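hey
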């Protein structure tokens, strides 16, 4: 099952009166750009449960080669306003302080995504507006739009001072400009410039002077996804990791150093049937399924040995191997007390690891170079068994490589079936799942435009009978990726 990131949308509503000193455009007391506090650090109200759709956009254009200009980052959020909580005229709503609505322009907005225990910033900026629409008879939407800090810095008008900073490098100049508008030191990442500049009187709006400084450097300046002013010097395009290596790989080929598992066993845990499982030998064991002991899911294969016999085994057959490549087969086995130890092997191939552990699942494995396109992976008793003795087998896996990776079938986190559940191969790939990859080449933009849409088509919208809110259009847009084809990524 594919696991999607958890997206969180927050607005600076939570503390009510404590936000009274923060900047609000068009407010007679708090709308003066050169006197108010620019933003709050910690007062956030989670409004994620009301979100229908989220869009975040940022990009860049090549104004005059090689000068780059980054655009303001923007966010568009569609909110459920059925209870009028985002209606600025509703003074009985939850976002009201001392009789004054908090649903106003310039509220700080933050959008983040959490996946695999890690939280990533997607956008931080300030509300442009809260546009309310009503859908008869009793439904309402709120269209929240927001822009990052470029609009604050653009509207911050400064009075001229005596000329300062002659001969300083561009990184120092960027720092001086941000200091002139009291921009937080924690909300900036400034590289040391490679170019020196003449003195400045620090007049006019801050963003225009920041752009002039960046143009002089032939560098880059923008507001990043965490709301920080980011300055890159001219040499960064040749030295930064983001500019010298691939940031994303699209395709199904394994990537060196990244765990990618394709399990060729089509029925690895016998959750629904015993298809592809078999027994053999002169006195083969009895083949069955059991819920008594299972490592994955609720069922496991159960082999009940007969007494003696030649070469008794329980196993599964896999196909799809490439001759000459190395594969490893593995399986989890549970041997009850009093039953013989077992070993894993490939028919006609080497013996693998064995276990003497009782009453607990142990993973066994065996590796070999494929000489045919299919294998029979088998579990043998180490010593002659007695009638009624048993072994439970679960989590069978055959994959490319010499050592087994974390077990994978379509029911495991970040794994998916390639076809019918419990009747097809499965895979774990640390890549975006996609149906269409659309790439536009345009020599007027900083990078190729890449759009990835989740499985289901170019504009997939999944619905259920209850609510569209639960199943959103999953579209991801990036304009700062270095692309590699599968062949390049695998090389």
């Amino acid at each position: 099952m594919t696991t999607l990131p958890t997206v969180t949308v927050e607005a600076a509503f939570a503390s009510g009166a404590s936000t009274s000193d923060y900047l609000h455009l068009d407010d007679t007391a708090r709308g003066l750009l050169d006197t108010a506090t620019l933003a709050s650090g910690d007062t956030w109200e989670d409004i994620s449960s009301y979100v229908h759709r989220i869009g975040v956009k940022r990009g860049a254009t090549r104004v005059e080669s090689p000068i780059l200009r980054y655009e303001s980052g923007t966010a568009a959020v569609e909110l459920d306003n059925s209870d009028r909580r985002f209606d600025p005229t509703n003074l009985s709503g939850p976002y009201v302080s001392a009789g004054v609505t908090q649903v106003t322009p310039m509220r700080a907005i933050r959008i983040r995504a959490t996946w695999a225990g890690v939280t990533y910033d997607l956008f931080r900026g300030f509300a442009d507006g809260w546009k309310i629409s009503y859908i008869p008879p009793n439904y309402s939407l709120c269209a929240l739009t927001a822009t990052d800090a470029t609009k604050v810095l653009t509207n911050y008008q400064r009075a001229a001072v005596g000329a300062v900073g002659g001969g300083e490098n561009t990184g120092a100049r960027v720092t001086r400009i941000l200091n002139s508008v009291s921009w937080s030191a924690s909300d900036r990442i400034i590289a040391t410039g490679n170019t020196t500049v003449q003195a400045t009187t620090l007049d006019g709006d801050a963003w225009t002077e920041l752009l002039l400084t960046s143009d002089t450097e032939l560098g880059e300046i923008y507001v990043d996804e965490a709301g920080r002013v980011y300055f890159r010097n001219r040499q960064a395009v040749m030295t930064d990791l983001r500019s010298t290596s691939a940031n994303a790989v699209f395709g199904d080929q394994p990537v060196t150093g990244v765990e990618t598992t394709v399990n060729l066993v089509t029925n690895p845990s016998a959750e629904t049937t015993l298809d592809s499982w078999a027994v053999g030998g002169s006195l083969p064991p009895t083949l069955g399924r059991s819920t008594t002991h299972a490592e994955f899911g609720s069922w496991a294969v159960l082999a009940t040995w007969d007494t003696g016999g030649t070469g008794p085994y329980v196993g599964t057959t896999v196909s799809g191997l490439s001759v000459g490549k190395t594969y490893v087969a593995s399986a989890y086995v549970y041997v009850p007390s009093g039953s013989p130890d077992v070993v894993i092997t490939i028919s006609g191939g080497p013996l693998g690891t064995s276990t003497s552990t009782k009453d607990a699942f142990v993973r066994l494995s065996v590796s070999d170079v494929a000489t045919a396109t299919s294998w029979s992976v088998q579990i043998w008793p180490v010593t002659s068994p007695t009638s009624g003795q048993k072994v439970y087998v679960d989590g069978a896996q055959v994959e490319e490589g010499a050592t087994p990776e974390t077990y994978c079938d379509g029911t495991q986190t970040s794994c998916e079936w390639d076809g019918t559940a419990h009747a097809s191969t499965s895979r774990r790939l640390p890549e975006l799942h996609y149906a269409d990859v659309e790439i536009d080449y345009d020599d007027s933009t900083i990078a190729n435009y890449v759009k990835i849409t989740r499985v289901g088509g170019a504009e997939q919208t999944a619905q259920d009978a209850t609510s569209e809110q639960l199943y959103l259009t999953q579209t991801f847009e990036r304009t700062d990726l270095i692309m590699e084809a599968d062949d390049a990524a695998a090389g």
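The longest strand covers residues 118-135. The helical segments are 150-155, 170-180, 206-217, 236-239, 241-244, 486-490.
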